[in-house]
Amino acid sequence: MIAFVSGGVRSGKSEAAEQLVLRWGKRDSQKASAAYIATAQRTDSEMKQRIQIHQDRRGDAWITYELSAASDLGRVLRRIVPESPVLLDCVTIWASRMLFEENREPDSICAYWTDCLRDCRDRRLAAVIVSNDLNEGMPMRDEWTQVYMRLLERLHRLTVEEADIAVQTIVGIPLVWKGEHR
User: Fold this and answer.
1) How many CA atoms, within 13 angstroms, populate the side-chain half-sphere of residue 107?
2) Which residues pair with 173 in a beta bridge?
3) Residue 70 marked ligand-binding
4) Which among 122, 131, 117, 128 has a CA at the least distance from the CA of 161?
5) End-to-end CA distance of the chain
6) What positions constitute the catalytic site (predicted)?
7) 156 in catalytic set
8) Which end of the chain is more exposed for a tag (fewer CB within 10 A), N or C?
9) Which CATH architecture has domain 2-178?
10) Is 7 labelled a binding residue?
11) Tell me: the pLDDT tens digits for 147-182?
12) Annotated binding residue at 64?
């Protein structure tokens, strides 16, 4: 089962995604611990504070995997026990790291992402994937911003195509666009 949860900055998407992972985990008879794949790095005081808020809200019930490199995602996914609930937060940061830190081409990033989605499906992970809605305003004129935005659009479409559920959060309210959200 794969779910995609998107929303604007501070829209409540991470909290909605966490709740979905916990509900899926409770349905699982083997009661595997929920895994959290963190894509962000502690780059400045604001990011450190945001990470701490997320960690405090989740508590100790989650197994956290922090990506030292964005390209570690596939390796980390393979470490998670099959059929386990997992939350990836978030595609936006992961994609920026692949593009700007690892200097990957957008086509290469999309191929890698497709492989990761396929791995989630093949291993029957209850995967909830979070991303930011960034393309609802005026388009930026900067070339690299445009490359990044087009990449995110492609990644979002690939994810929604594969997802059983697609949810957008607006002011803390989850709106289901695809599948059933219970």
Assistant:
1) 0
2) 170
3) no
4) 117
5) 13
6) 54
7) no
8) C
9) 3-Layer(aba) Sandwich (3.40)
10) yes
11) 999 999 999 999 999 999 999 999 888 889 999 754
12) no
